[in-house]
Design brief:
mainly alpha; 82% helix
């Protein structure tokens, strides 16, 4: 198996982690009592205890598994873009690697943090405070805004437009995802809409990228 084919499969894998994240949250975690947007740290912590290890599995998949697959995709996609736009391809690899690293870091922090919280008694007054710290760091690295993923999408759009290795339609879609992600910085209702476009759009984007890389890998054989 060539690395480009592996990268194409990683694209499908990244999409699968996003789909899993949405489906598992609403089909399993929320019915079990998990409330990620609870009004206080104590309420969120209580909902985490209610859901138990299922919450930890969710974070492992959406962060750690996603980050590993993302690293493979970033490398393969940069290699695909290099012949036609070498400088922009290197930029895309750097920005994508930064994103994958931050996502992995967020997952590791959350995994260790949850393991620690599960060992604390429910009446421990420091547990809620610890959760707020963990949640703040995790959000800053991986989910509070979408800056790093947006920069990667924009770098792919620039490389695709400059070199022509991928279609203009794909480049335009990458541009849309990048701009919608950057719009999450401002907050408010528009940020929620932009975040939805960003998250759901990236599912289609990952699949599209996987198809392109797999087709190119087959044609190169």
């Amino acid at each position: 198996m060539t690395f480009k084919k592996l990268a194409g499969l990683a694209g499908f894998g990244c999409a699968a982690t996003y789909i899993f994240g949405f489906a598992y949250l609403f089909a399993v975690l929320v019915p079990s009592g998990f409330e990620p947007a609870a009004s206080s740290g104590a309420e969120t912590l209580a909902s985490i205890r209610a859901a138990g290890p299922a919450v930890q599995l969710w974070y492992i998949v959406i962060y750690i598994v996603n980050a590993v697959l993302l690293g493979v995709l970033v490398t393969g996609l940069a290699d695909h873009l290099t012949p036609s736009a070498p400088v922009l391809a290197r930029w895309s690899q750097v920005s994508g690697t930064i994103w994958a690293t931050l996502v992995l870091g967020a997952g590791m922090i959350m995994n260790v943090g949850l393991s620690r919280i599960f060992t604390m008694t429910p009446d421990d007054p420091t547990a809620a405070q610890m959760w707020l710290v963990i949640d703040l760091i995790e959000n800053g690295l991986g989910g509070g805004n979408e800056i790093t993923g947006s920069i990667w999408a924009l770098s792919i759009a620039a490389a695709a437009l400059a070199g022509g290795a991928m279609s203009r339609t794909f480049a335009g879609f990458s541009l849309l995802i990048g701009l919608s992600g950057l719009a999450t910085i401002v907050g408010g209702p528009m940020a929620e809409i932009a975040g939805t476009i960003y998250g759901l759009g990236f599912i289609a984007w990952f699949i599209w990228t996987g198809i392109v890389l797999l087709r190119d890998a087959r044609s190169s054989q």
